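QA checklist item 7 of 12: single-chain prediction sanity check.
[x] sequence parsed
[x] length recorded as 192
[x] structure emitted
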Amino acid sequence: MTGTEDTEHRTTVINLPEAVGVFDSFEALQQAFYDLRMVGFSRYDISLLGSEQALKEKLGERFWQASELEDDPEAPRAAFVSEEAIGELEGSIAGGFFFVGSYVAMAAMMTAASTVAASIAAIAVGGLPALVIGTLLARRAGQHHKDYYATQIEHGGILLWVRVSDKEKEDLAVKIMKEHSGRDVHVHSWSE
C-alpha cells in the first residue's frame, strides 16, 4: 500500500422535491425556520449551506455566491442552529468551567483543618479564573456562529433548503419563505 489513497466525495441525490430560498438576515431566516417547524416540517428536512471549511473541502478555493449554489447538489449542507441553542451552549461552557474550577478548589480545601471561610475563598479563587476562561470560550463559540451567517450574507445570502413530499407542502414551504423575505424562492425536483 502506498500510504495515499484517492477518496471521492459522492453526493447522493434523491428524487424528492426541495424548496430553496435565500435570506438576507439571520432574523428572517430564523422566523421562516420556526414557521416551517410550526406547520409540521421536520428539522431533518430543513438544511442550510455548510460552513466555509465544508465549502472549501467540497468546492475547492473558488469564490462562491449563494445564487450559484441554490441548485447545486454538491453544495454542503448543515443543520439550523437557533440563537437560543447558542445561548444555552455559551451558558453550559461558562457554567461548566466554573463548576470544575470550584470543585477542584473545594476538593483541595476539604481537610479537617480547613475553615468554612477558607473553603469559600478557595472556591472563589478556583472558580473565578475557570469562569473567566469558560466565558471567553463561550463568547468564541457565539462569535463563530455569528461569523458563519455573516460570511454567507457577504456571499449573497443565507441559503435554506426544505424537502417537500407533495405539492401542498411545496406551496406551503414557498409561501412561508416568501413571507419572511426569502428571495429567489423556487422548487427543484431533487434533494440531497
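[x] summary fact logged: Residues 82 and 153 are 17 Å apart (CA to CA).
[ ] second reviewer sign-off
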